């Protein structure tokens, strides 16, 4: 089966999906969509994804446009290696972490929103920091310090969300030293070859 991943190298949402695809060893073709030149607003891409966002995973028969929905599809289609804990309570914690990032942090520090905040006279950097700090505080409390990664000794979907969000936190000037468990998890994650290959700087469209 041939997959096409429409991605932008610096998109944290697309980065999550690259991690999941790599961990599950699912081959795909990388199709760069340049968000800076507004390629996602092109007529061709708007037909593929009316939300005008990345990532978009295109299968031979249909497309999926949201990272967590893509996670669900990949786990259902490719059971091994699993990225979901066996224990239902731990799985719930994993999805909780994913949702804090996916709905409680990332959309609130999205570049398009920050531009609107600035236009309205607000401080976009302060707004981004405030929301990242709030979310990271909750996540820090949820992480299991006895595990190698966020909730397990193997990479889960929570890890696919945490690492890109840590990068965003640094970009917006958040003092990440206040979150030692998040830092420890991410230090372990960046040693994994599949995750190294998913890093922004290793993508075909990365600006050198």
UniProtKB/TrEMBL annotation:
Pfam families per record: GST_N
Residues annotated as domain GST C-terminal: 87-208
PANTHER family, alphabetized: MALEYLACETOACETATE ISOMERASE
Protein name: Maleylacetoacetate isomerase
GO BP: glutathione metabolic process; L-phenylalanine catabolic process
Species assigned in the record: Stentor coeruleus
Coiled coil: none
Domain GST N-terminal: 1-82
Assigned GO CC terms: cytoplasm
Lineage: superkingdom: Eukaryota
Family: Belongs to the GST superfamily. Zeta family.
Gene Ontology molecular function: glutathione transferase activity; maleylacetoacetate isomerase activity
């Amino acid at each position: 089966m041939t997959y096409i991943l429409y991605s932008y190298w610096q998109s944290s949402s697309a980065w999550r999906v690259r991690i999941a695809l790599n961990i599950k060893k699912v081959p795909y073709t990388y199709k760069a969509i340049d968000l800076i030149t507004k390629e996602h607003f092109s007529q061709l891409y708007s037909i593929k994804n009316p939300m005008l966002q990345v990532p978009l995973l295109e299968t031979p028969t249909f497309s999926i446009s949201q990272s967590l929905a893509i996670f669900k599809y990949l786990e259902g289609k490719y059971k091994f290696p699993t990225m979901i804990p066996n224990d239902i309570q731990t799985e719930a914690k994993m999805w909780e972490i994913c949702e804090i990032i996916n709905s409680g942090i990332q959309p609130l520090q999205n570049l398009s929103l920050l531009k609107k905040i600035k236009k309205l006279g607000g401080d976009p950097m302060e707004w981004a920091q405030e929301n990242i700090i709030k979310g990271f505080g909750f996540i820090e409390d949820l992480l299991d310090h006895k595990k190698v990664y966020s909730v397990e000794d193997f990479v889960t979907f929570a890890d696919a969300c945490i690492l890109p969000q840590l990068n965003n936190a640094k970009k917006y000037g958040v003092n990440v030293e206040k979150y030692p468990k998040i830092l420890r998890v991410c230090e372990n994650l960046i040693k994994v070859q599949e995750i190294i290959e998913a890093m922004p700087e290793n993508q075909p469209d990365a600006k050198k």
